[in-house]
Structures are given as structure tokens and as C-alpha cells.
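Researcher: Let's try something more involved. This one mixes different molecule types, so please make sure each is placed in the same coordinate frame as the others.
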Amino acid sequence: MATTTVSQSSTTFSQSFYASLHEIAGGEKVRTCLQCGTCNGVCPYGYLMDYPPGKMVAALRAQRFERVTEADTVWMCVSCYACSEVCPVRIPLTAGLMTRAKEELLLAGNIPSELQVALENTQRYGNPLGESPRKRADWAKGVKPRVPIMSEERRPVDVLWFVGDYGSYHPRVQPVSRALANVLNALHVDFGILGAEEVSDGDSQRLAGERGLFEMLAAKNERALSQYEFKEIITGDPHAYNAFKNEYPKLGIVYPVRHYTEFLAERLDALKSLFKGEVNARVTYHDPCYLGRANDVFEAPRQLLSAIPGVELVEMPHNRTTSLCCGGGGGGMWMDGFHWEKAHTRLSEWRVREAMQVGADILAVACPYEAPRFEDATKVVPGASRLIVKDIAELLAEAMGD
Amino acid sequence: MAERVGVYICHCGTNIAGVVDVPEVTRWAGELPEVMIARDYKFMCSSLGQDLIEKDIKELGLTRIVVAACSPHMHEKTFRGAAQRAGLNPFLMEMANIRELDSWTTDDKEAATQKAKAMISGAIQRVLFHQPLELITVSINPNTLIVGGGIAGITAALELANAGYHVYMVEREPSIGGHMAQLDKTFPTLDCAACILTPRMVDVGQHPNITLLAYSEVESVEGYVGNFTVTVRKKASYVNEELCTGCGICEEKCPKKVVDQVFEAGIGTRKAVYRPFPQAVPKYPVIDRENCIYFQKGKCKACQIFCPTNAIDFEQQDRFIQFEVGNIIVATGYDPFDATRIPHYGFGRLPNVITSVQFERMVNASGPTGGRILLKDGTPPKSVGIIHCVGSRDENYNEYCSRVCCMYSLKFAHLVRERLPDAEVYNFYIDIRASGKRYEEFYHRVMMEGANMVRGRVAEVTDVARTADEEGKLIIQVYDTLLGEQRRIPVDMVILSVGVQPRKDARQVAQLFGLGCDFAGFFTERHPKLDPLLTMVEGIYIAGACQGPMAIPETVAQGAGAAARVAGMIGQGTVVMEPIKAHIDEERCSGCRICNNLCPYKAIVYHEDRQVSEAISALCQGCGTCVAACPSAAITGAHFTRRQLMAQVEGILLDVRQSMEASST
Ligand SMILES: Cc1cc2nc3c(=O)[nH]c(=O)nc-3n(C[C@H](O)[C@H](O)[C@H](O)COP(=O)(O)OP(=O)(O)OC[C@H]3O[C@@H](n4cnc5c(N)ncnc54)[C@H](O)[C@@H]3O)c2cc1C
Ligand code: SF4
Ligand code: SF4
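Model: All components are placed in one shared frame. Result:
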């Protein structure tokens, strides 16, 4: 095999990429990689990636980064934070290395066509599903009392609810949004939504390498938000939560934000007094990557589930920091075909199998990507058709006799 | 003022001169009105450098010396010696630290040069007010306290006792022996730990020069080098040692079984009245009050009924014992890393995932399984995975390398194959660290014996099977970095090679003895290379794994080394102490007593009759706490008088002063 000659005179691609990592918080730690391989070992698709994170570091050190951008298996990364969680020298692998690599693939035009479509949709319509922006609040039709839309209310509210793309448009997630609206109403929370003024939070697009698009979306959301007065933002979408909590502030967009499970866990007593019925079921909870590993919210969702009368909460072998990715992160939501072609299995199926293994009746979720993904998986995994997938908001609403 | 000052500026090779413009500083110093002569030299601390100073003192009649060089920690003694040899009182020499505090802190040459001038100017102004002082000599009590009876403490105790000195050994557990007593065989020679350890334990127990205080803890330490007063709490064991013969009938008859979390690491049991292991030293059992049926329910007393010598005494109380020692060796050892902190390795959740310490007990013939390697269901494993670096080399837990795990993991591979020749063994490692004597050879031997070495740090241990051959197994998921592939390896048993970390109460122990701890919590030595045994406190030494992770050979070397240092001190008979003491001016003391409780050495007494406080100079360590606290400014610290300090501050502010003077004219 011929050895690659390393250019001494001008900066190589590897060198400039390496240097660019230093601009990310903690990115310089890549220098201390031990080549222990833990990241590659824990990665849910590590078995078929040409360059899982640790090997990507090795390629960088050997000045062979071109090879990484030629491999399309970088697109198998679902930005699940599993590698970042276990790296012994705490290299920001997910937010740093993998995301930067995807940016390079995008620039090189090495991009699955499905992902291309989702990114173009976002560009054109402000959401990856290609839905009309005018219909963004359509899900709320029929909710009583009515879901207040900020542009119509023209008054300060306590809570601004950022509904997100899937909560607004996806037929399986719209009922989750309605359930959450009912819970908020029952608790007499003074809230409002942006409606047609809201656009995608852009976090998954960012993790799929489209940083420019992300910044544009952030600016649009900020334009809408800055017109209104509210005390805090809540959201049902952990990806939006991550954007508001960790990414928007870097662009100067700073609002206090909580996931709805954190918001509701603070009102546990009030909630308990509203429960009318029981949910008699063995329930297991799936920690979403962007609520759990990425942002350390593990207990609030469990507190809510445990508070529901009749619920027996059981843990799957992989829980909390070791939770298994549903496969939807980092653009995975828009690359199902591509992932299937490479892996001939879906990550969501492993999750459903574990839920079955612990004898759960209900698989509870807290992220809008998950209900549709896991429900699809229950149809493929043998014997899993009896497993019910529900968002925590739906279970709460149900216990309130909704 | 008629003092004749000499200023000596060291280049320290390029350490100082690479940043500070030494010739310029020398020129500047030579022009100062107070200064008679200023010289620079490549290495002031060399004998030629010292000669320069001595010669000038004699020939020019210098009365004050300033040496601008490194930290006084390094060379204050050297230059005081030079002054003394030339007939000048050594306390009339002052150092300006222009290395650690200046040249090593910056690349900015101009700023460094300016700072060097300021610091030298401070030293000159200060030294003008210095007074000649005489060193104080105190005698050294020949007794020694050793805290911790692991192999480090045992070694130190026997060295000193055999040399004819008396030792008090304080051990927290009912028996001495430490972790080494738990081990089966020891790398790299594979000799049996008990065979080499227990004779030494017996020696400690029987030695006429050793007072063994087991099941005891140090309550307080007062005093200073040569003269410490120690108070020890001997915990009530409810067994009268005068009467007990160590026959063990009480243990046999006690109806209460307890899981032994300490010696058996949670995989074996003991009774409520127990000795941790049969060869325990001392031989007396103790009653564990928390688990004793009599203490908890008021009924039982089986041990008392059956004891042939009537040694059980339920009325026994904790006792306090006080004694004097001249030196102290702290050898409190380490704790194993708590494997439950790493959720993805499944310890505590998956039954056949065990820690290395548990495995040591399991393979030990006197352990709970009689030396058989068994799964929870009582059958032997057909395959065993050994995971290195658990909790070590990981910034999420302990960043450092625990140094012993690679070797004991290889030892385990050998032991598994020795007991179960048909079993497959896998060692998962990041790097093999086999840097000790005969370690590399041991590594080769274990590979020859058939261990499967997999280079990669394990990502997870799970019981979630993906294929039929994984059913019912523990699956080790790892990226084999040499093969460049993710692998899932099904095994029956997983051993987690947990690292070595500071005792969980290390910081409290450090506080008790006035020691420092490093970032992780290991005790800090005086110098990492040149003085690994002495601490920052004169007369207190550290040895063994309380100082950092180390294997038995180094631990023993440290124990013996600390003993040699102590023996040297005792042989000296006396020790000189800095005359830096607090003095309370009775005329100014208002009797407010603020200083009385602040003194960490309890060196201040209050005279009720005269209503004034007095600092006892034999006890005072010169820390200066009282000096700063006194609201009446009645306390002076010798060699740190207000006048000296103010003069130094003014000197340092030379720049400011000059520019203020310039602008006012
Ligand atoms: C699984 C495992 C296997 C190992 N195998 C080997 C091997 O094969 N070969 C090898 O060379 N090394 C081996 N080691 C390393 C070995 O255990 C250490 O080198 C050695 O035990 C260190 O001895 P020590 O006396 O410093 O500390 P310790 O053994 O920890 O002894 C300290 C003693 O101090 C007592 N103590 C603690 N605090 C106090 C207190 N405040 N007051 C009074 N007493 C106190 C403790 O009870 C204990 O008796 C192994 C280590 C592990 C974890
Ligand atoms: S973020 Fe997840 S998918 Fe991406 S490399 Fe890391 S472990 Fe693999
Ligand atoms: S886990 Fe961290 S240190 Fe280990 S190979 Fe991956 S990036 Fe490098």
C-alpha cells in the first residue's frame, strides 16, 4: 500500500479541521484522546461505521481526514451522546467532532438525498416535514379552553410553550400536544404559543451539519419571541430544549427554558389532586438522548409517572445515562431509508425489545420523535404489537379522565 | 543607616536569566544607596557562588545579605550557612524569590526584570531591620506513632522496633494486615500473600517494642517535631483482652451472621462477634454492636454463656489512651474504587459482575468459597472477562493510573487458568503498564498461558442478548482497536479491575495531622522526587498507598524508608527549630483572649492574675495566626515584625513610590 505523503508546506485539510475543533468548547481535548476505543464500542452504529469517533481521531492524527469525508457512514451517527458520555478524557465527540465532520461532508456534497429533502423543506417552509407554516397551530383546534396564540392575545403570559415541528404537524404527535394543552389548562397555567410565527428550533439540522440553517432559524424564532412578554419557555421537544438551553445562548438568544416534565414535576401536588382514574399498567420509561444524557434530566419524568395512580414503574436494562437511542437524532429522523439500507435493522427495535423483556405494558416517552418511531417498531418486533407507546403528557391527561 | 548590604543575583542557568535581565538588575542594585556591592553569578548555590558571598562578608565587612534566586524552600539553608561560615548571624540574610515568583511565571522579559527589581528592593528594605536570632534546639522523644497497620505500617514498625525503638501502632480495624491480607497470590512472583505477610503480623503482635492498639483511632495530636502528645480512642470491643485466649468459641456460638463488607468485600459472612480472618493479629475478637442481638434486642449473650474464660464484657466503654512520641508515620493506605459509580458495567445489577477485591477473596483458599471460582448459581464459569482501568484513567472518576491493576489483572488471568484450565479468559486493556521489575516477563508468561488480550476499553457489560449464543450470558461490548471492529463477547463472569483511591476519610485524617492532600486526596509529600516520605509537617512522614497508588514492593520500600528517616531523627537526639516564635507584649495585651482559641498548637496560656496572655515558645510553631488576630497589636512574630514587613512592602512598591515622588516634584 502506498503511504500518503504529508504536505509540510501548506496547512492540510486534517490540520485545518483539527484547528477548527479548538473553537468548540472543550474541543482542544481531542489532543488527549487515549485511543481507548470506548466511544467506538458504545456507539449504536459503531459496528458499521468506517470511522467511529475514536478512529476518526486516529485518522486526523495520521493526516488522513479526506478518507473520513469520503465515507458516507459518518451519516450513521445519530448524535445520541453515548460516546461523549463514556469518553474518559471528556472530548466533546457528539457536539464537536461528529457534528463538525458532518459539516464537512455536507460541504463536500456527500449527503443522503432524504436528508437533503428535509433540509430543503426546512429552508423553504421552516419545518423539515414540508408543511405549510400557516397550519402550524392547526393541532390546537378543538382544545378547550382555547390555546392562546401570542400574536392574537397581545398580553404578557407566564409561560411560552414552544411546540416544535413534530408536536405541531405529525399526526401521531399532535394528540400529545393536545394532551399537554389539556394538562396545562387543568392546572390553570397562563400560557401561550407562537403559532405560525414559530419555526423549527433547528437543533437536529445543526447536528446534521447545517449550521447556517440553524442560525437562520434561531434568528427567526428570536424575532418572534422578542415581541412578547413571558417568564419562561417550556417545550415538549428535548431537541428544542437543547437548542434553547445550550445553543441559542451562544447566539445571544437567552431565555429560561424547561422541558415540560420539569415544569410539571414542580406541580406534583396540584397534579395529583386532579387525577380521577387509574392507569393500571406496568410502565417503563425511555430516556430521550437530549433530555437525559445531553442535559441530565432523569428524575422529573420518573416522578410524574410514579405519581399516576396504578402505574408500576419498571426500568429497562439500559436506562438513564445508558439509555438506547431511538435512532432519530442528528438527522436520523430524516434518514430512515439510508440507515435501513446500511444496517437492516432499526435502533428503535432494540428499545422495544427491552421494553418487552421487562414485561412492560406501556413504553412511556418524552420526546416527539419517539412515539412514532417506537410505534412503528412494535409492528416489526415479534410479539410486540401489544406494547402501547405513550407520551407522558398523554398518560397524565388520561389519568385526569381526559 | 550604617548597614553594609551585599546583593547577590543568581542566573540559575537560564531559569532566571532567560527571562530576567540579570546584568541590568545587578547594575541597578549596585547603584542603590543602601547597597555596597551587587554581583551576579550563574549558580549562586554552587560552592563558588557561596564563596563569593563569604569572601565579601569578610573582606568588605558586609552586615546584611540579600540573595535573589529561587524559593527559600530550596536554598535558604544554603545561604544562611554561607553567612554563618563568614561570621555573620544567618538571620541577617534575606532571599528574594525571583524564580518561582517571577521568571517562571511569565515570558515578558521587561515585566520580569521590573518585578525582580521590586522584589530585591523589598528584600533590601526588610533586611535592614533584621535582628540576629539564635536557633532553638529541642530534644526528640524516641517513641514513634504509626497510624495504619497495612504492609507499609507493619514494615515501618518492625524496622524501628528491631532497631530498639518503641512504636505505638494504631489500627482502625480489629486486625492489622490491611489489603494485603485479603489477597491470594501476589504478582509478579505469585507468592502467597498470607505466607509472606502473617509472619510479620505475628512479629508485630509479639514484639516487646511495639504497643499494638487495634480497633483504635487517633483522636488528637498536639505538639511539634520531637514532642507530640497523642490521644487514641480504643473502641469498646466488649472483649476483655486480659482474659481472652483467642479460642474462637464465641464466634462459633454467635447466632448472628453478617455480610462482611470490609474483609470479605461483600461476598462472605462473619458473625456479630468476629475476627476478620483466622490469622488476625491481635487474636482478640470484637463485638459489632450494630449487629449484636444482645445490643439490639436486649437478649442473647450466647458468647458470654459459652466463653470459657468469662472474657465477654458488655459493659466495656471506649477508652482514651495518651502517650508522647517524637515522630509519626501515617500509613493509612487506600480504598478500592466503588464500581457502582459506572452504570454501564452493571456492578450491583448483574449478579456475575464482581470486583477485583471480591475475586481476590474468591480465589483465596481461606475465603468464602474455599478458593473455588464460582458463579452465583454455584457452578464454575466457562469464560471470564477481566476489565482493566475501572474508575482509573478516566476524568469522570479518577484521572490518574492506579498502577497496580494491569498487573493484578494479568495475575487474575493466570489464577483463572490455574483453577479452571478449560476456561477462556479475556483481558480488556487500554495499555499494559508493566514497568516494574520482572513485570514485563510476567505479562509474557500470562500470554503464553493462553490469556486472550483485547486492546480496547470496554463500552458496556449487558445481559441483553441479541443472538442465540448470547442468551444467558454477560455480553462484553468493546471496540477492538487493533482489529478496528466492534465486538460482542459473551462470557459467564466479569471481573472489574477497580482502581486505587484515597481513603474516604483521607481529608479528615489529613486535617488531624496537618497534612496536605493532592487533587485526588492522596497525602502530599514534601518533594515529589527528593523527599517522598516527609510531609510539610516536620516529624510527620507518610508511607505506602496513602501517598499514591503503589504495589507491595514500593509500599515496603516506603515503609522501611520512613522508618529509616525516623531512626535518623532519633539518632540525632535533638532537632533545631527556627526561632520564629510569637511574643506577646504584656504592656499592650488587653486580655481579650481572642488569640487563645485561634492558636492551632494550643501554645497560648492566659494568666488570670495579671489578665494577660502568654505565648509558650516551646509550643509556638510561628504560624503567625495570633499576630494577625490581635486587636491591640500586642503580638510580634520574630523575624516577621511589623517593621520588617512594612519596610519590605515599601521596598516592593518602589516603582509606585518613585513615580509618586516624581509627580509631586
Ligand atoms: C485487587 C487488588 C490486588 C492487588 N494485588 C497485588 C499484588 O498481587 N501484588 C502487589 O504488589 N500489590 C497488589 N495490590 C496492591 C496492594 O494492595 C497495595 O500495594 C498494598 O496493600 C498497600 O499497602 P498499604 O499498607 O499502603 O495500605 P493498606 O493495605 O490499605 O493498609 C492500610 C491500613 O491502615 C488502616 N487504616 C486506614 N485508615 C486508618 C486510620 N484513620 N486510623 C488507623 N488505621 C487506619 C487500614 O485499616 C489498613 O489496615 C493489589 C491491590 C488490589 C486492589
Ligand atoms: S453520537 Fe452516538 S451515533 Fe454519533 S458517534 Fe457518538 S455514539 Fe455514535
Ligand atoms: S473514548 Fe475518547 S479517548 Fe477513547 S478513543 Fe474515543 S475519543 Fe479517544
